[in-house]
Amino acid sequence: MSTLPQISLTARLQTAKRAALAAGHVIMAHYGHHLTVSTKSSQADLVTQVDLECDELIREILAEDMPGEVIITEETYQEGQGFDLSNAWVVDPLDGTTNYAHGFPHFAVSIAFVEAGEPKVAVVFDPFKNELFTAVDGEEALRNGISIHVSDVQTLDRSLLATGFPYEREDQGPLNSSIDLHTRFLKVAHGTRRAGAAALDLAYVACGRLDGFWELHLSPWDVAAGILLIKQAGGVVSGFSGEPLPLNQRRINIVGSNAKLQEAMIQVTSGR
Predict the structure, then answer these.
(1) Which neighbouring-strand residues pair with 133?
(2) What does the DSSP 8-state code read for residue 85?
(3) Is the pTM of this model over 0.85?
(4) What is the pLDDT of residues 73-104, one digit of tens each?
(5) Which of 55, 86, 96, 183 is most buried by its number of CB atoms within 10 A?
């Protein structure tokens, strides 16, 4: 029985960075030009030819350096499949597609390597701002090679938080729950933001631009890289009731912060 070669996390990071930068080049080459846009799960769930081109490019680069490894991407995932995250790459080739399709400059490439269900390597690249967020398990998180840390805000009334809303519009439950939580957080925080790219929201928590983030019904490729960025920058992530995050589930409810705010945020997300 053949086994895959042992590859260091440092080598994996270098490959992930190369793939993210290559995809970012494609993204910016098409930015502001006419795009072919179609929909997936709903009228609000967009995909462009750039998503698909970047998806293929990232898979090619990862397979070239790490042949035979599992690669799970947003654009190749078939609904109903499970997630084997024992040893896998988890990729969102263009997080914030709706922003990108409208020319709103807030989008990113997100690539993570997951081992035994835990992110071990993370890359989030914002090609418009040329910001490369990286992390390796056990090492500090970086932005363009410089160490980053979560904020030191200690109370919700001094916090700037971010969230997003689910694409599912026919089932009003998740949307209504999201609106309710947004209203509750809006009443207690300095402010809330809904910028439309979860990977960047999580990266912004990691570097202290945001103090916390919550959202319902995300997917593994939305959050895998951001989870590690926050952890390695000194923050924490969990489910809405404080439980360990089930990264292998199709729909994930996540709350993350600088750690000092986590319990207060969970009080809101759990309804306690």
Answers:
(1) 124, 143
(2) -
(3) yes
(4) 999 988 878 888 999 999 999 999 999 999 99
(5) 96
